[in-house]
Write a structure and sequence with these properties.
The chain is an alpha/beta fold. The chain is about 35% helix and about 20% strand. Strands 1-7-6-2-5-3-4 form a 7-stranded mixed β-sheet, with helices on both faces. Strand 6 and strand 7 form a beta hairpin. Helix 1 packs across helix 2 and helix 4 runs parallel beside helix 5.
């Protein structure tokens, strides 16, 4: 058992990551209602000896944190609409030998009505699977046990993914902010 697994066990969390260790994939993580989700997600993935990069809003990338986050696989997300981030990530997936990237479709810790669809566009264009990750504070479990393959119909794919998260009954740290 590695240090990450020991920390989670000490905190009372259980990890169930059964999806294959894909060379390339997007890990869709929800609910996302707290900064703790980042820490728990990184620990959970490390507890099974895997490493995934992550997206984080650009304002967190200031010295000295920018060096730390980039070393951990962080990719800054600009807060301007129309940025070329989706296209850049598709290119990264297409040129990388190995790339696993965690993305929170809610895009924020606050309650939102619409989830962001860029991760589906990236997965479809780069032909990579989407592993569905669930952080459930009510049961103290972190699960990544389902894989979703995109169809190219973003609306239909998003509906299936939201239905999946709704069916899990997972509760975020701040449950009022989760809207599957």
């Amino acid at each position: 058992m590695n240090l990450s697994a020991r920390i989670l066990r000490w905190m009372g969390w259980r990890v169930n990551i059964t999806v294959p260790n894909y060379r390339k994939c997007i890990i869709c993580v929800a609910p996302h209602t707290s900064n703790w989700d980042f820490i728990l997600g990184k620990l959970a993935y490390a507890s099974v000896n895997r490493h995934a990069g992550f997206l984080m809003k650009q304002t967190w990338f200031f010295p000295p944190l920018s060096r730390i986050f980039r070393a951990m696989g962080g990719i800054p997300v600009p807060r301007v609409h129309g940025s070329a981030l989706t296209r850049e990530l598709i290119n990264r997936f297409n040129t990388a030998d190995h790339m696993q990237l965690a993305i929170t479709p809610e895009g924020t810790r606050s309650r939102v009505e619409q989830w962001r669809t860029g991760f589906l566009r990236i997965a479809h264009a780069a032909r990579v699977p989407v592993a569905l990750g669930v952080i459930d504070y009510a049961n103290k479990t972190i699960t990544v046990s389902e894989t979703f393959l995109t169809t190219g119909d973003v609306d239909a794919d998003m509906q299936k993914i939201r239905d999946y998260y709704r069916a899990t009954g997972a509760q975020g740290k701040n449950p009022e902010n989760f809207n599957p």
